[in-house]
Amino acid sequence: AWALLTSAILVVGPVLYLVHTYSPRKNDEAIKNPHEPIYIGLGSPSRCTWYIYGALLQQGGMNLPKTDGARLIVGTWWLVVMVVVATYSGSLVAFLTFPKMEDAINNLDDILQRRQEFTWSLPQGSFLEDFLIVSGEQGMADYRGLLEENEPHARKHDAIAYEANVRKVKHEKHVVIDWTSALKISSRNDHMSTGMCYFSLSTDVLMLEEPIAMGLPADSPYRQIIND
Predict the structure, then answer these.
(1) 65 burial class (0-12, 13-18, 19+ CB within 10 angstroms)?
(2) Where is this protein localized, as stated in its record (predicted)?
(3) What digits encode the pLDDT tens for the residues 159-214?
(4) Do the beta carbons of residue 65 and residue 15 sit within 8 Å?
(5) DSSP per residue over 156-225, as a string?
(6) Contact 125, 118 (CB under 8 A)
(7) How many angstroms separate the CA atoms of 84 and 79, rounded?
(8) What domains sit in the chain, N to C, each tagged with a CATH number?
(9) What is the pTM of this model?
């Protein structure tokens, strides 16, 4: 838009000079009144260009054109200026009053709907990957489009490579799909190292119970109690 306005100023200014200088009425006035002072207000292309630029900033000039053709050009340019200023002012007020907010990603359906805007990754070889492979069967929602084999924006990540995932979320439009506990640990570790929180966690993305286990000695007497 700014390039078009600059081009318009550079074009309209010389055109105004040509129309004003070579107008038949101006020549007739010079013949009828040879002793009248020479009109130099718009007497050069640079002056005309400067006049057009000042009109864009809503600054009137000291001199007005005397010929009909030049007056028509100036009047048309003022109409253009009014439209441009009104449009720009309205857009600026709307932007400052109602800033554009990016919609949050709350579930897997949001990712699939906006798949061209984001990349995402799943833990490689995990139960989540196996679940998505069989999704769509037995009346479940079909999320096989999230798999790397079916979508070029999909990725896989190692379960322990949380630093790489954090870096992608910070600097790229990337979504990490993992167990809630793993994401909370990644968020906590990054918060402890940087002192800032860059994450927003979406819960209940998939209605899956997260398996939790506890490591015990092979001959522990408490194993049966815990399992029960």
Answers:
(1) buried
(2) Cell membrane
(3) 666 777 778 888 888 888 887 777 788 888 888 888 887 777 776 566 566 666 77
(4) no
(5) EE-TT-HHHHHHHHHHSSEEE---HHHHHHHHHHHHHHHSS----PPP-SS--PPP------TT-TTHHH
(6) no
(7) 9
(8) 1-97 (1.10.287.70), 108-194 (3.40.190)
(9) 0.47
